[in-house]
Design goal:
Layout: E1 5-6, E2 13-14, E3 19-20, H1 35-47, E4 52-54, H2 63-75, E5 82-87, E6 89-92, E7 95-98, H3 102-116, E8 123-126, H4 135-147, E9 154-157, H5 161-167, E10 175-179, H6 187-190, H7 192-197, E11 201-205, H8 235-254, H9 259-268, H10 283-290, H11 299-308
Parallel strand pairs: 3-4, 4-5, 5-8, 8-9, 9-10, 10-11
Antiparallel strand pairs: 1-2, 6-7
Helix pairs in contact: 1-2, 1-10, 2-3, 3-4, 4-5, 8-9
The structure holds NADP nicotinamide-adenine-dinucleotide phosphate (NAP).
NADP nicotinamide-adenine-dinucleotide phosphate (NAP) binds near residues 20, 205, 209, 211 and 214.
Length: about 300
């Protein structure tokens, strides 16, 4: 079942369950990922009706974009998909720098187009703000790329509320991607009032809090990637979070669904949010996440989940 939605004020129409692709070719984030599994996952996702893919240069330093470009070309599906990517990090003498200058944005968009083997990007985000470029100038450069047909919509990510307002002074920002999940709800205060008022669609990243909210970890689960240093996976905090997830499980059981679907449905019930982009490492996780639209939440369930994580 797929009920398509429009992303904010853009002309991008998608299945609201997208795919966060930082584990596709993201060798720098997840050591040991298998590109053959990545390819199978993408093919399964697309064949199952997923049409919104979120990637970035920094996921494998271009590797994620390359794999997506190759698979989409092989499947001849470009026109059926909405591809979002992000740029702004660059390496100078092996030092990672963030650059929002118009010249660099033009360069990085061209490089993404090449890696993705396409002549347009549906949604391009400034991945991180730099310190020097006025944000309306950076977004102004993206508006020129939009007018030139290289990108179809403009996004910003990891911008502070002030940077977002500055970026949107001419009303050009279509999407804000920011950290938001049941364990980290600050965006409700910091961003949602502004994004709703200004028709900017909010795309939450880390919807499963890096897997914690997907309902399958126990206190004995070991992590060998960046999660081993994240506070939400440490000691008492980890155990408290797992206890909250268990409370979700009883609601999920009553609805004959999974915790992961309940969590994604909770985000989609927000006015501020049109789409979610959960990450996945196995094809079966994508198939499971796509079932979310079969479990709409009623108001009582929505409030109960909000309360568990208030
Ligand atoms: P996430 O969506 O919170 O968690 C994804 C992880 O949850 C998967 O890798 C998998 O981990 C587990 N999972 C997914 N579906 C599952 C299911 N049905 N059942 C059980 N487990 C499941 O974290 P994320 O992938 O880091 O974030 C989502 C996307 O947001 C990224 O892919 C990326 O596109 C974007 N992002 C953007 C920024 C930014 O700065 N703009 C930052 C971070 C992320 P395991 O298999 O390991 O358990």
């Amino acid at each position: 079942m797929s009920k398509k939605v429009r992303i904010g004020k853009t002309d991008l129409v998608v299945n609201p369950i997208g795919l966060g692709a930082n584990a596709i070719g993201g060798h720098n984030l997840y050591p040991g990922i298998d590109e053959q599994v990545n390819r199978e996952l993408l093919k399964t996702a697309i064949n199952e009706g997923l049409d919104f893919i979120d990637t970035a240069f920094t996921y494998g330093m271009g590797r994620s974009e390359e794999i997506i470009g190759e698979v989409v070309k092989e499947m001849r599906k470009r026109q059926d998909l909405i591809i979002a990517t992000k740029g702004t990090q660059k390496f100078v003498n092996s030092e990672k720098l963030i650059d929002n200058s118009p010249e660099y944005l033009r360069e990085t968009v061209d490089a993404s187009l090449k890696r993705l083997q396409t002549d347009y990007i549906d949604l391009f985000y400034i991945h991180y703000p730099d310190e020097n470029t006025p944000k309306y100038e950076a977004v102004g450069a993206l508006k020129e790329l939009k007018d030139a047909g290289k990108i179809r919509a403009i996004g910003v990510s990891n911008f502070s509320p002030e940077q977002l307002k500055e970026a949107n002074q001419d009303g050009y920002v279509d999407v804000l991607q920011g950290h938001y999940n049941l364990l980290n709800r600050q965006a409700e205060q910091d961003y949602f009032p502004y994004t709703i008022k200004n028709h900017i669609s909010f795309v939450p990243y880390f919807p499963f809090a890096s897997g914690l909210l997907a309902g399958k970890y126990s206190k004995d689960t070991q992590f060998n990637d960046f999660r081993s240093n994240m506070p939400q996976f440490q000691g008492e905090a980890f155990e408290e979070n797992l206890a909250k997830v268990e409370r979700l499980r009883s609601i999920a059981n009553e609805k004959q669904t999974e915790v992961s679907n309940l969590v994604l449905a909770w985000y989609l019930a927000h006015d501020a949010i049109d789409t979610v982009i959960p990450g996945a490492k196995k094809p079966e996780q994508v198939i499971r996440n796509l079932k979310t639209l079969e479990v709409p939440l009623n108001k009582v369930e929505f409030d109960e989940i909000s309360k568990i994580f208030s």
